[in-house]
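Technical annex B. To support the medicinal chemistry partners, we prepared a structural model of the target in complex with zinc ion, based solely on the information shown next.
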Amino acid sequence: MVSLAGVLWLNMISNSHTQVCYLCGQRLGDTRDHVFPRLLFPKGKAPTNLITLPACAQCNNKLSKDEEVFQQLILSGRALDTDVAREVWETKVRPNLKDKNRGLRQRVLRQTEIRKSVTFWGQQLHNWPVLNVDSASITRVLSKTVRGLYYLECRERLPDDVKIEVWFSQDQYERLIVPQLMPYARKTEVAKDILTYWRVIAADNPAASMTWFVFYHWNVFCVATVPPEVRSVSNAELTSSQSS
Ligand SMILES: [Zn+2]
């Protein structure tokens, strides 16, 4: 026997997409998750209007460790030449570097390796050396963000059979950004000097997308979402579908 409260609760969930966790799609989204992590910003300087989406507490908590690893990585290399990245480091990271976190930076660096080729939707596009972040943490954080963008655009969860691929590049801005796709990509500046992204979506299938995130001017991530039905689509076909 289902209680009246139970029926009302189920009704509430089934009638409103906004009440279901946008990440797992299985539990009630009773917390708000920041699509762009707050730890990108210096202490006390996160904008108050950052996008949030409903997420369950489990998904939300699970991501916080991942975001710490991610933060270490995006604050590496030439990013630290920028004032704002140094400010994040000084106000948020350094105070937290207690004994248990001492090896974190080394762990992040060990998780990177040189990869000689990049595939885009099943195709070999170019050969170039990129730092391949073989890290589930980084992939989970950026997958989360891309899931959030899709949810905002389509008001539904990105289907679970869509493959998400992540590439990382440091100091290789123009090489990672695929020049053929840039004319079709929409640029969004989330916060000046902190995060800008370019996003291109296949006209006939919004689950097929590429997004380039540039953190602190230097650290570039490319995230592709690849639905099973478009894995064999050629780059040329994608480009022509965007322009039609
Ligand atoms: Zn969830």
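Notes passed to the chemistry partners:
The CA atoms of residues 204 and 241 lie 7 Å apart.
The two ends are 55 Å apart (CA to CA).
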